[in-house]
Amino acid sequence: MLNISNSGALNLDIVEDMQNPFLVSLSGVSGELTAGTSMQVSSTVEPASETYSYVWFLNGVMIPGETLSTITFGDTLAIGHYNLALRVSDGTVISSTVHYFSVVPPVNVVIDPDYNFTPDETDSTPFTVVSTVPSNGAQDVPVGTSITVYFDDLINPISLNDVSMSVTVADQVVSGTFALERSANDLYAVLHFTPSQPFADNVDVMVTLTSVNGLLDKGGNTLANELIFTFHTAAAYVGDATNLGFESGLNGWNITGNGEIVSLPFASVLSLEGVKAAMITTDCSLAYGLDGTPLNDATSLLSSGSLEVPSVATLCSFDYYFLSAEFTEWIGSEFDDTLTMTFSGPNGTIIETIETVNSYQASECTVLTSDLDSDLFHTGAKTKQVDISGLGSPITISFAISDVGDQVLISAFLVDNFRFE
Asked: How many domains does the chain have?
């Protein structure tokens, strides 16, 4: 402080200022918090005192009711980035500290970067399951098949775990990875489960979506009732690396539902390599030599036996057409028929929804006159290239064509000319 002496001199005295902030530190914090779990944080203030008051903040907003030196929180936080701050006061002096952290999905949960989930407190309607692949009661399901569930709402990622959706064989939980993505029209959730290893052959698989401690939608609603569906896997079979173009029929391949080897050009118009290709459809028609009934009148599968990958190959490519009678009237609706592929190997699995009705504009669709449906459209011949370098060998390949939202208008998948590159 400044003072003037009797002699008129100006003196500067330096004294200890008791208003200096005190030191606040946190323990129990971490840089990452797994979604659905909690973080217990404790604070230490120096010098110690029993007169301090505590206020906690999350992203700058005061947390109601949290006025102690410790806090347990986080189990309801959405995936994202946060800061936890603590303000401590003795009535005169205020000091604070802040910790930055992220809420991340569980190790076995993969969230599509474009999922962008936002809660909606005004949503009080329980969500429902629109369809499943495989369907309930399906038989001879390929062992390399992944499980897909289509919903009529978005699902909160923090509610996804092996309790809210469990997969069991003989009462034993099957380990695997969940993948959550939005439908092509961005309105609904699509959930995939890929087992860590292919299912055993000739076993019953049970999938349970519980209504207690289960999945949650935007409004925090659960399923109104528990949903259980089962399917039975097929006997294992060996693929045929010499029949990747289906010129030898279905040798080394299997179709579950409705499908068959068809002659090219299909419907006198669609051409691929050679004179034969494989087709699966959600239709019950037996036109073009197709044989079978879609699972639950909604899904058909094409799958290979185990295929040895050439040592120099890192890619697998194939040519195909995606066809649907949902084009063009129902683009953008809940009738979002899909085509999903799965490539599985000893070192991993790739699952991808490669086609949906809602991913197109009407101008991209060409009408096709065929005996499957008088209003069938296609989107042109396409080539898909899959990076299989991380899968190991052998691999299995499977596709599922699914009628989503209804069982009325059909979709189909025409595929040919697999090759390792």
From this structure: 3
